[in-house]
């Protein structure tokens, strides 16, 4: 066990040194304040780490992750991180990032029994059930799952846009935009789902148009 910890501590020392070799003031500057432009809401999956995927250094992206990148109206944890990001840090862009091949979305889709987490994944099953008629028109189960991964992102962007935190920020004229993105594990590429939201006008029509585009690609 201690060997594993020694390995991690050694890795950390090497990383810290390499950053300091590049910029000797990096950590002292960062210790004074954080000023990230971006807030990432993503899946807890070990393969989908925000900074590395975006090529950003510590201090450049504020992060909240949970299984299947879900934004629940009553999740005090997620809402608290959001409120801090918007009201205090004043991030300019909020990225909801899903990924293809998501284990949480897959379990939700197939009703896989995993334990307590099935209660959390009910939120993803609500997304599945909301779009069940259109999902059923897709013959290939792998493509159904890809569409559900994307639909889950759009749903969470909509949920974010309907929080009091976003409504209040936009009402006072704060410039902050929500984006839905999806990441490919197989190629490391992020794709926009083209649903930028920077006002609370026409939220539902933005959402519906983005959903239509997903299914248009199946036609
Ligand atoms: Co996932």
Strand content: 5-15%
Q: In which order are the strands of the major sheet placed?
A: 2-1-3-4-5
Radius of gyration from the CA trace?
19 Å
How much helix is in the residues?
40-55%
The low-confidence runs, each spanning 5 or more residues with pLDDT under 50, are none
Mean pLDDT: 96
Shape: globular
Number of helices: 10
Distance between the termini: 53 Å
- Biggest sheet, in brief? 5 strands, mixed
Secondary structure category? alpha/beta
| Unique bound compounds | cobalt (II) ion
Number-wise, the strands total: 5
SSE order, as H and E? HHEHEHEHHHHHEEH
Structural summary, described in words:
- With 219 residues, this protein is α/β, with parallel strands linked by helices.
- The chain is 53% helix and 13% strand.
- The protein contains 10 helices and 5 strands.
- It has helices spanning 2-22, 26-32, 50-54, 76-88, 103-110, 117-130, 132-135, 141-161, 164-171, 203-216; strands at residues 38-43, 61-66, 93-99, 177-183, 190-192.
- A 5-stranded mixed β-sheet has the order 2-1-3-4-5.
- The model has no long low-confidence stretch (mean pLDDT 96).
List the keywords.
5-stranded mixed β-sheet, globular, binds cobalt (II) ion, alpha/beta
How would you summarize this macromolecular structure in one to three sentences?
The protein is of the alpha/beta class. It is built from ten helices and five strands; from the N terminus they run ααβαβαβαααααββα.
């Amino acid at each position: 066990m201690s060997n594993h910890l020694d390995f991690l501590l050694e890795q950390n020392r090497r990383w810290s040194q390499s950053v300091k070799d590049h910029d000797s003031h990096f950590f002292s500057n960062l210790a004074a304040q954080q000023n990230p432009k971006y807030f990432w809401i993503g899946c807890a999956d070990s393969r989908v780490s925000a900074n590395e995927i975006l090529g950003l250094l510590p201090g450049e992206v504020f992060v909240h992750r949970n299984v299947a990148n879900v934004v629940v109206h009553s999740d005090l944890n997620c809402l608290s991180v959001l409120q801090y990001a918007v009201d205090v840090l004043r991030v300019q862009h909020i990225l909801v990032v899903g990924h293809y091949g998501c284990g949480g979305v897959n379990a939700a889709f197939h009703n896989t029994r995993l334990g307590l987490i099935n209660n959390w994944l009910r939120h993803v099953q609500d997304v599945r059930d909301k779009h069940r008629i259109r999902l059923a028109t897709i013959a290939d189960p792998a493509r159904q799952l890809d569409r559900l991964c994307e639909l889950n992102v759009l749903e969470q962007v909509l949920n974010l846009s309907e929080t009091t935190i976003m409504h209040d920020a936009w009402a006072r004229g704060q410039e902050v935009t929500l984006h839905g993105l999806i990441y490919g594990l197989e190629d490391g590429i992020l794709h926009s789902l083209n649903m930028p939201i920077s006002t609370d006008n026409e939220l539902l029509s933005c959402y519906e148009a983005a959903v239509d585009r997903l299914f248009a690609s199946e036609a």
